[in-house]
Specification:
The strands form three sheets. The protein has a six-stranded antiparallel beta sheet with strand order 2-1-6-5-4-3, with helices on one face. α7 runs parallel beside α12, α8 packs across α9 and α9 packs antiparallel against α12. The mean pLDDT is 86. The protein is α+β, with helices and mostly antiparallel strands. The chain binds adenosine-5'-diphosphate (ADP).
Length: 445
């Protein structure tokens, strides 16, 4: 099977557009064949019509032969041919001629009916009727032509091809127009799936597709309102939690019993991190709280963040980096992102596999920071979801490590706000590499 054949098979199976287009073409073809066949068979079977026609043609031909005369007068025949649009071929022992050289010889003619009393035979040649009249030793063949024999002129085929192309092209564009709302809806669904709840599908018609588009927009609005009220609730709760958390922190300081104190302080720390991450995420969403960009030396920033973790098992190393890299960044936010990635890498690593490796690289249009650990790794099906808020891989794993599944979602928001992105490549048992990429337009030179 060739590649193009496979591609067309794929299109046929997958594309409603091509199915509809093909369906229209096949329907048109079948209709033409059926209608044409119906009339063709209908008329052909109508023997009485044909028999009457042949009888009348025979009588008429007798008159024409009388006019041409015996012996036949070629001048007269030519004049009749010109006047009436009939053509003559004459065969006798003395003379043999035709009023038009393209007339077929008598041997090419197939007789359909014989009128022996009138001494005539009738048939059709290329759908034109002819009559053969025998008078003594002379044979007169009269052809009834609407136009001369011969091929159709070349331009008529060009016209036909043009018309067929026009009809097929017209049907192609009509189907495309018909199916356009499906493409728009599909795009809308993808936008919603990516969290762009403001997206509206244009309602271009008042048919079923139009109704579907209206319902879709209504649904998107409802989802938007639901998400907004969920975010609002989360934000309000987070705000409310801040004061009791601060009071708990202070109160914990006064606890005497050391192990309980540490446990409480750890829990309070985690709750506080969660609240901060929620509030930080929300601030990044709003215009007011978006980035404070400033020219930043990225290499120094990374080194500074790493420094705080070098004592943590299994350690962190900056393995490759340019000397200096100036970028327009919100250094507070980038610091949070780096910290979150490093803390995760340390949390899910094992000391025997060596330290976390950080690399900084620049290409023509991006600056990349990758953080590689040799720890547990992340299952493939979870890799797309770990950037969602509150998503955690396997709760039994995270029970020991703590966290609420907000760190990576915040990292993603920070990167999106910088017009950059965060990616993960991971394999179970081998470790994970998280890569932050900043577009070079953030670069200050
Ligand atoms: P949390 O604060 O719970 O760690 P994150 O959003 O930072 O939340 O991470 C989401 C989940 O992704 C974590 O629960 C963890 O299972 C997984 N994960 C993140 N980083 C790593 C890593 N370096 N190695 C293995 N798993 C990771």
């Amino acid at each position: 099977m060739t590649e193009s054949f496979q591609k067309s098979q794929f299109l046929l199976r997958r594309s409603i557009f091509f199915k509809l287009f093909l369906f229209f073409l096949i329907t048109a073809f079948v209709l033409v064949v059926v209608i044409r066949g119906f009339f063709f068979l209908g008329i052909d079977r109508n023997h009485t019509f044909k028999a009457d026609l042949f009888k009348n043609l025979t009588r008429y031909s007798q008159q024409l032969v009388n006019e041409v005369g015996a012996p036949p007068d070629q001048e007269r025949a030519n004049a009749l041919a010109k006047e009436l649009g009939v053509q003559f071929r004459v065969n006798s022992p003395k003379q043999s001629w035709a009023t038009d050289q393209s007339l077929p010889p008598v041997t090419a003619l197939r007789i359909e009916q014989t009128f022996s009393d009138a001494g005539a035979q009738v048939g059709q040649f290329r759908r034109h009727p002819f009559v053969i009249v025998e008078r003594q030793d002379t044979q007169y063949i009269i052809f009834f032509l609407h136009r001369p024999f011969g091929e159709l002129p070349a331009w008529s085929f060009a016209l036909l091809a043009g018309l067929v192309a026009f009809v097929i092209g017209g049907s192609y564009f009509a189907v495309r127009r018909l199916i356009r709302p499906v493409y728009l809806l599909n795009k809308g669904v993808r936008e919603i799936a990516q969290g762009h709840f403001d997206h509206q599908v244009p309602v271009a018609s008042s048919d079923e597709f139009g109704e579907l588009s209206t319902s879709f927009n209504e649904m998107a609005k409802q989802v938007r309102e639901m998400v907004q009220s969920r975010d609002r609730l989360l934000l309000d709760v987070s705000h409310e939690l801040r004061s009791p958390l601060t009071r708990m922190k202070v109160a914990a300081e006064f606890i005497e019993n050391a192990p309980a104190k540490e446990k409480i302080q750890q829990e309070v720390y985690e709750l506080e991190t969660m609240v901060t991450e929620i509030l930080e995420s929300e601030r990044l969403k709003s215009q007011v709280g978006s980035l404070t960009l400033a020219e930043t030396e990225l290499v120094a920033l990374v080194q500074e963040v790493i420094k705080a973790y070098t004592d943590h098992d299994p350690g962190v190393q900056l393995t490759s980096s340019p000397e200096r890299l100036l970028l327009a960044l919100d250094h507070q936010r980038v610091r949070i992102a780096l910290r979150n990635l490093l803390e995760n890498a340390l949390k899910f690593s094992r000391s025997k596999f060596g330290p976390i490796q950080v690399r900084i690289a620049e290409s023509t249009n991006t600056v990349l920071i990758s953080i590689q650990d040799f720890g547990l790794g992340i299952p493939l099906e979870d890799q797309v979801r770990i950037f969602e808020p509150f998503y955690r891989v396997d709760p039994s794993r995270t029970r020991h490590t703590g966290g609420y599944g907000l760190g990576l979602s915040l990292v993603k928001k920070i990167m999106v706000a910088h017009s950059g992105e965060v990616r993960v490549a991971s394999e179970i048992g081998s470790g994970s590499t998280f890569t932050l990429s900043f577009p070079i337009k953030n670069r200050e030179v």
